[in-house]
Design brief:
This protein is mainly alpha-helical. The chain is built from 7 helices and 2 strands, in the order αααααββαα. The protein is elongated and about 60 Å long.
Length: about 160
């Protein structure tokens, strides 16, 4: 690691084989991007093997998650940012209605069918297995610490433009 003329440490270039003494100077964008890509690919590949998509799982969970049956809009709005837009979740709702995993009531609210409940249960088991794979060798304390660091970085960046 080299020091610049003002005494600060230069950021090290992204290096997957970096040693511990260099890791503190690695770019977070590289590492967070790699984690996102690897975990998302692993999850989506496992779901594809059983002919399900991650957005379908999100929708099933959202429909299942509240005290009252949600409207299509109540499902789409919170999931749209995760899926690249409203159209993707709207399509996903249509796919699940076509599959018979969702149904609508007279008011247009969404409900899981028995088949949808069974699919969601299978997907929950799969997600639990995949989480265990991803978290292997990482205890809960380390995981919470890592998420707190990432949450602070997000707050730092999102707050930077508000002065």
């Amino acid at each position: 690691m080299s020091l610049s003329s003002d005494g600060t440490t230069d950021q090290a270039p992204a290096d997957p084989a970096a040693t511990d003494d260099v890791l503190a100077h690695q770019p977070i964008g590289y590492w967070s991007g790699r984690v996102h890509e690897a975990v998302t690919r692993h999850l989506r590949d496992a779901m594809a093997r059983i002919d399900v998509t991650q957005p379908q799982y999100w929708v099933l969970n959202r429909v299942n998650g509240g005290p009252a049956a949600p409207s299509v809009e109540e499902v789409i709005a919170p999931l749209a940012p995760l899926a690249g837009g409203r159209h993707e979740i709207s399509r996903t709702v249509d796919q699940l209605l076509h599959r018979g995993w969702l149904r609508t009531d007279a008011a247009g609210n969404l409900h899981l069918t028995e088949t949808g409940k069974a699919a969601r249960s299978r997907l929950r088991e799969l997600a639990t297995e995949l989480r265990a794979e991803v978290h292997r060798g990482i205890d809960d304390e380390e995981y919470v610490a890592a998420l707190k660091v990432l949450r602070t970085m997000i707050a730092n960046v999102e707050g930077a433009g508000e002065s």
